[in-house]
Design brief:
Strand order of the largest sheet of chain B: 4-15-14-13-12
Structural class of chain B: alpha/beta
Strand content of chain A: 15-25%
Largest sheet of chain A: 8 strands, parallel
Shape of chain A: globular
Largest interface: A-B, 42 and 40 residues
Helix content of chain A: 25-40%
Oligomer: heterodimer
CATH class of one domain in chain A: Alpha Beta
Number of strands of chain A: 15
Distance between the termini of chain A: 48 Å
Radius of gyration of chain A: 21 Å
CATH class of the largest domain in chain B: Alpha Beta
CATH topology of the largest domain in chain B: TIM Barrel
Amino acid sequence: MKFAVSLVAESSARLGSLTEFARIPEAVFETPLLLLHTRGASVPHLSYDLLQMVSTGHHMLQMPLVTLVDHTKNVKAFGKGIAEFAGLKEYLNYVSVQDSGTTTPEGYHEKNSISLWTRGGRKLIDPQTYISCIEALKPDMFQAIVDGDTTQSSSAKRVRKSVDVTVKFAGICADLKEKSDVLKDTPMLACITGGYNIKERLRCINELKGFGAAGYVIEGFHTNGESATNLLWEDVEPVLTETLGSLPENLPRAFHGPITPIVLLKLVSKGIDIFDATFPWLVAERGGALVFPNSLSKENAPVTETLPSVKAPAVVATDQKVAKLADDNSNDESVDRVYEINLKDKIYFSDTRPLLEGCSCYSCRKYSRSYVHHLTATGELQGPILIMMHNLHHYINFFKSIQQAIKDNELQALQSKLDLFVSSRRN
Amino acid sequence: MTRHPLTFQVLAQCKTTKAKCSRMTLPHHVVETPVFMPVGTQGSLKGIVPEQLEQLNCQIMLGNTYHLGNRPGPDLLESCGGLHNFMGWSRNLLTDSGGFQMVSLLELAEITEEGVKFKSPYDGSECLLTPERSIEIQNAIGADIIMQLDDVVSSTVSGPRVEEAMHRTTRWLDRCLKAHKRPEAQNLFPIVQGGLDPKLRTESAKQLMDRDVAGFAIGGLSGGEGKDQFWKMVHLSTDLLPNDKPRYLMGVGFATDLVVCCALGCDMFDCVFPTRTARFGCALVETGQLNLKLKSFAQDFRPIDENCECSTCRRYTRAYLHTIATVETVACNLITVHNVAYQLKLMRNIRENILKGTFVDFIFNFMDTMYPKKDFPVWATDALRVVNIDLHERGSMHKHQQVDC
């Protein structure tokens, strides 16, 4: 794999490309890149045929090991890797440790392993087991095993331990990878942990030197799932700025999790290169269709309708929030629906407009809000399919706009457009 | 006689059995019969999009009036220009009357001459589904074929109630025909009732045949009666109903049942089984079905069916489906596509063999594959015998046929 930065904007936003993957050499991925999030090696709700109806281009899939670990034995017996096993060999794939779309339970630390919460319960994985799973999956890129279990409220000791463990594990992974015939040439991304502590972040970067990482994943700002949608930028920014400033410029940097579009643009402007599509999925799961402006283009019909106003989410202390999320998933006030319309809402019962006017996706070309509302009200499986197709289409185009905006030095304008949209819905 | 928006052209008649292959032209699309119609209860075939059904060459699907009448309701459907527009399906639709759901789903349904009285499961209020109301809703939905409201009695009930229901079904047919507002665009089918009583069924068929309709349904079966009684009632009904109009056997969809009932002269079938079983991780194959949840498929790297042309079989293995069946909704999409493909392929094979004059051979091969130990169900053996096929005398049958040619 080759990464090249072609442009660095004043803001530090970068334009680049990932190329020369061994399995599909002709694939070119421009960064900032959107990884398509999967569960059980399929994009949620979308078979290959449905995914093709969203986009026929090259994409890289994010495959969380936590959703695959129960089946690695069978993938190993298959022998040709997860892409072909899952019927998606036309797509490149990147195996991550946790599912960034689903909240990872905090705690449960062991000295020599991490916890993966699978359908069968908690599974302890040490770096040796982890690498043998990766060997079975034969991904095109993978993440080193990591302890990223830190938030703003983590103790200094917890933060220190997460760095210790992450560095130790990265060393073992790098070592095993070097000795593995299967993985020798597979790019591995090392993980930067250290929570909201600049010193620990810098220590992590320092101690990871020499492990031959192909890039970095910035972990430890949230514990995945909903927790990532409520990041407080004021707290993230100083730590992230220092962290990125200390990383080599010629390697890609990934940031996982369903962060909101506004935070995403801020991360882009700081120099993050790789993201995942967990946000459009999370929104689809609660019956929401994305309607935020995803482009600067004037061809796109401006949103002329008055969208229902959306309150800012209540600020809840992190530990309370997690407890609350545990018992009910998305009806609480900390969920911010400002980027979406909620198709479960009765106001769409007879609304003949598409999910988003001017959108060219399959769902919007063909169906009314009224029909999608009917599907969500009756719990029909086609509901999440249509919403997911729209949300993914919307997000893929959002990334095209981001790349274009960096090229045209207009990232700030895109940010302002989004800010304006959000504030207009807050009244 | 009114000109119905349906033409039915018999293309070939099997020389041995009562099976025939026909072309039925409806307002939205042509239908080749015998046909299996997948069920999209609430205006969606669970887990797949209409384009996938079109790719499978599905020409007609079902919607349920009871469910659609509740949600989204006839007013909305009418304002959208009908269910075709609402759900983005440009081919044919058929709707049932809503009566069957009412009796089978609702404990408190009470049937009077007026209609079916029931408590709304949504707000507990008392509602009445009359023949007129059923047709009004079905007119709003706008399906190409609509069903009369019939007085459904469980096929395990006997006695005077069955006779009452049979006569009432005819009276309700007349009320339905009178209430039908769009006869130029929608075909209203009556439903033969009469339980398991040959006399009553004969009487029912005769009464309905006096009315001006484009096709007939055979109802009141597949409700828990013995298969030996079931096939006799089908056989009797198809003997009575005209051969130049489609005969729709309601609620039948197992592969063996389809093959036998085609031989008995039925043209149209529907059943939730293929799509429902898909959601539980079961895939249909020539030898029966595969429960993909079973551990034995964990390292089975073949497609569900090596001879199947569906998009699922061309790309996905049993081993992969095993990992996601009943866990990820994608599995529902993939197995549903295959199961619908299986049903439609079975019907295509039936039609092609009727056209080629090889339907009898087809039945032998089908039964041998489905029951490799030759443990054919007794009812199927008996039913096929009345249409001149003896499953246990394959050799002699062949000779007999050769003499015929």
